[in-house]
Amino acid sequence: MLYQVLDLPKLPEDLKDMAWQYAGVEQDDALNPWVLGYTHGRALYKDNQSHGNSTGLPRKQISADFNQWIHDNITDKFHDVGICISQVGFSHSGPHRDQSRNFTLMYVLKQGSENATTTFWKEKPGVPEVNYYDNYDELEYLDQINIPLETWCILNGKAIHSVENIQEGRISVQVSLNVNPW
């Protein structure tokens, strides 16, 4: 399973408002701070040419009330819940495997563009398995999804994936899971 759109309760308006408020807060205390130092600004290549630089996708914890709503209404199998914000002007996350979770339950609040996709890849024969890929030419396309706004979608975080066409900035609630309860 690379991804699955799920029929789960929508976020209530007060929690959506809370998430939007946290989207504007500085990311110096991110749940996954290494993405800012290691993955943000990586030079990417595709078709033997420069393909821009990657954006790091830091997650910031929202609140205990937010976590409690997820626990009571969505799943109790998570280990963190955060708001994830990409930087405006960067079009790609770059292909990667998630480091802090096996599955990601996403609820997109802002797509980044109408053509934003989460795209899944696999290594071409002979390419070593690593956590971050700078050259798309080393990968084979598998599938992609334009995650609908305000819809829950679970992604396999250990599959190689990238987020493409997010130059306007993408904002999503992300629930980190080590097991897929669906």
Describe what you observe in this structure.
This protein is α+β, with helices and mostly antiparallel strands. It contains three helices and eleven strands; from the N terminus they run βααβββαβββββββ. It has helices at residues 13-23, 34-39, 64-73, and strands spanning 3-6, 43-46, 49-53, 59-61, 78-85, 103-110, 117-123, 139-145, 152-156, 160-164, 171-177. The chain has a six-stranded antiparallel β-sheet, with helices on one face. It has a three-stranded antiparallel β-sheet with strand order 8-7-10, with no helix packed on it. β2 and β3 (49-53) form a beta hairpin. The longest helix is centred in the first third of the chain and has 11 residues, at 13-23. The chain is globular, with a radius of gyration of 16 Å. It starts with a strand and ends in a 5-residue tail after the last strand. The relative contact order is 0.27.
Q: Distance between termini?
A: 11 Å
Number of strands: 11
The stretches of 5 or more residues where confidence is low (pLDDT under 50) are 30-37
- Structural class, from helix and strand content? alpha+beta
Percentage of helical residues? 10-25%
The overall pLDDT, averaged over residues, is 86
Number of helix segments?
3
Fraction in beta strands: 25-35%
Radius of gyration: 16 Å
Order of helices and strands: EHHEEEHEEEEEEE
* Overall spatial form: globular
Record the strand order, biggest sheet.
1-9-6-11-5-4
What about the largest sheet?
Answer: 6 strands, antiparallel
